[in-house]
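Service request form, structural biology core

Requester: graduate student, group of Dr. S.
Request type: structure prediction, single chain
Budget code: on file
Notes: please return the result as structure tokens.

Sequence provided:
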Amino acid sequence: MKDSNTNELMREFVTGLDNTLEKDLEGATDVANSFGSITDTNLMKNIVDQIKINKDQATANKNEKGYKIYDILYSMLTMSNDSLTAKFGIPPITVMPYSQLADDSGVVVQQVFFYGDKDGQGVFRSFTGGFGAPDWKVKKEAQWVKISSIRGKRVDIYCNIPFDEPDDEMAINALQAFLDSSNIAPTIMIHRGHSYHLPLTLEHVNNRHKVVILGACGAYQNLSTVLSQSEDAQIVSTKQIGAGKINGPIIRAFNDRLLAGKDIDWVEMWAQLSKQFSGGETKQLFDDYVPPYKNLGALFLKAYRKLELNVPQ
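Core staff response, request fulfilled:
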């Protein structure tokens, strides 16, 4: 495509993002997501210039929604992550402090969702089989499994047993009822299953969840759903294919840091994982996974919601 055509297409792409229903931010979120994929410096400069023009027009027209959208997008392109999060009152996106994951007793609680199709049952066996002495012990109940750390910091992982459908959903509900009645509040949610099961998992998101790991195909499209229920959640998801060979190592690396009582430094953790997935099919799969610090769509939505909450009544 000629440069002139490319620039015109991108101008159209970033214009009129406020001409939608009040709560429809899909177009603006798509624009934010695109920032991480554009490597052409001239094209990016043109995008920045056009967003600045749109921002100024919104100001002149006293278009509050338009101004919010374009101010956030312009800030995302012209400010560092730390400056951006400070400006909009968003918690840092590069690190999840260990202290925010542990409860008052010092226990980090995770809830992992499995489903009863053939693939889900296989993933469950692989997942639970990866925990054992000397670091972990596994206790099986009637409808769920509890995995607890033996060494290091205290970590409890609750997994529903993926019985044949629809008994898998009954096990999920039974585990949720047990956690609620026992005042056990997971700060970490993990989905292990096909994307068509994801809506059921997302029904369980609440504002106590600080990290949400979605291992399903295309789960990246569910950012808004997660953030509407837990506005400060840090999300790991994939734009394309969710694969066990990627999900497993991510979760293991995550849990290793928890056992050591470390803050989750996503930049450092992702750099280590990148070395592990350095070539071939696994690199292609891993490259489609989005850690919180690269989750520009989520960053945009968090900033917009902060602005909405801070509007004088």
